[in-house]
Amino acid sequence: MGTPTRGVWTAWILVVVLFTARNGTVDASHVVYFHLQSLHVPVVNSLLKTGYHFQPPRNWMNDPNGPMYYNGVYHLFYQYNPKGAVWGNIVWAHSISTDMINWIPLEPAIYPSKPFDINGTWSGSATILPGNKPAIMYTGIDGAGRQLQNVAFPKDLSDPYLREWTKPDYNPVIFPSGVNASAFRDPTTAWLGPDGHWRVTVGSKRSKRGMAYLYRSRDFVRWTKAKHPLHSSNDTGMWECPDFFPVAPAGKLGLDTSALGKGLKYVFKVSLDLTRFEYYTVGRYDLARDRYVPDNTSPDNSTGLRFDYGNFYASKTFFDPAKQRRILWGWSNESDIAQNETTKGWAGIQAIPRVLWLDSNQRQVVQWPIEELESLRTKQAYIHDKLVKSRHYFEVKGIQTSQADVEVTFDVSSLEKAESFNHTWTDPQKLCGLKDAEVRGGVGPFGLLVLASAKMEEKTAVFFRVFKAQNKHVVLMCHDPKRSSLVPRVYEPTFAGFVDIDIANTKRISLRSLIDNSVVESFGAGGKTCITSRVYPTLAVGPDAHLFVFNNGLEDIKVSELKAWEIRRPLMNGD
């Protein structure tokens, strides 16, 4: 399909503007625009629809809810509008898989039907109770607009797919007593303490202070609010989609959410309603006080560590007992409303599920795409020991790169020409905007140009840049989509994060990028820094998308090894 007409793009942009909020991001603002629920958006380009990222066949999708593994089947529940490509009419859609790559859709598991959720069935989590019995706790909105915590259970445990769920009439199990009833949502996976009590935390706020209220129960039915929250932090605002889980102090094996043991570390993550970004800290769980205590190795606020420094929100982890790993899901929250052959719009994708573990430095987590993704690799391109001189580039040929998986290792033999680092550059996203891919540096920018047109009128740069600070080198990783499309965009931000690596010692750095038509997910230094972007090229689509390696720094760089694969389309929710 050719370049969309101006009228088509105008209609598309109008929809985006209506859902553009703080920081220019598009988010589920919890406001239903009834006049837009049946909106038909003109055709943009079907080639922009993702090929291997999780996506419903059509319509709006946001938060991943309660992913879980049960009796050999992975379940993904997610917030979904069955009636349109904008937020509203939210139900818990339900898909199943045996590998988290190929997905089969089922009927919604939970939808508004009772007084305690008649105005909405919002996010929540799944927990496996004793006797191998799954339970879901979710936020329901009652007729008075109050946010209540409810439970649901499978109707028939003998059904291998758990198609139907029941909501007991004794709901709600947690009522917003003593808390802000309009800011009380997204219960976590529950964990069992040594005293035999279940614990769950619910996101909230008290004035400008983000709160994770803690509740305890012996039977998963009667819950009591703890005197103190599990954790809180000033000036962070409403905490959405909190997550709390243990991680092993060494190695990549995951732990059950209820795991206890000497030396365990814990990760606490929240999604910030104020900024529409997430942050997390690493710390310990004080069992005696039932409180999470950060290690203070990173800020406990919006400037802290992120699972993903790009378009990534409302993430949720779960423990996969089949492979002893913790899996992270996240929603890429920029609306990408388009049309498919059914003339129904589609919006939102889930990032590729990632394995998550604690870095050896114990200051941050590391993430990597699940190994099952590699089953989609087909034709390969391979390059090794290729010098990329200053202000030079070369094309990776031999494969189609609109749907691709690229792994590359760069050798950085000399850092003598690294630019000086200004101590005021504390915000990596702003720094990437200041020193984007077009700004020549000393060591870098070097990396990949993905979803690029043949003459590079369109291109999305994924790159590193190295600076020299007083006592160390600082490595910046960026996504620069400023030139990703010839059409003026409403939302084309640069995204960036610093990479915790001693490049003066390693003399090399790795990059993996997953390219999927309108999505770019990148993993720097083996998954220490991750960035997800949504881009919308008009020329660099399908077979007309190209992949380049570039170096816009003064220092020469060598590609030690580059492997790139075409990625085939899996079974995706019947589409």
From TrEMBL:
Look up keyword Signal and say if it applies: yes
CDD domains according to UniProt: GH32_Fruct1-like
Claim: Transferase is one of the keywords in the record: no
Q: Residue limits of the Glycosyl hydrolase family 32 N-terminal domain?
A: 53-369
Q: Which SMART domains match?
A: Glyco_32
Named from the GO MF annotations, one term is: hydrolase activity, hydrolyzing O-glycosyl compounds
Q: Which domain of life is it from?
A: Eukaryota
Q: Name one Pfam family in it.
A: Glyco_hydro_32C
Boundaries of every Glycosyl hydrolase family 32 C-terminal domain copy: 372-566
**Which keywords describe this protein according to UniProt?**
Glycoprotein, Glycosidase, Hydrolase, Signal
* One example of a Gene Ontology biological process annotation: carbohydrate metabolic process
Which residues constitute the signal peptide according to the record? 1-28
Q: Cite the SUPFAM superfamilies for this sequence.
A: Arabinanase/levansucrase/invertase, Concanavalin A-like lectins/glucanases
Family designation: Belongs to the glycosyl hydrolase 32 family.
Q: What is this protein's name?
A: Beta-fructofuranosidase, insoluble isoenzyme 3-like
The organism's lineage is: Eukaryota, Viridiplantae, Streptophyta, Embryophyta, Tracheophyta
Gene (name only): LOC103713368
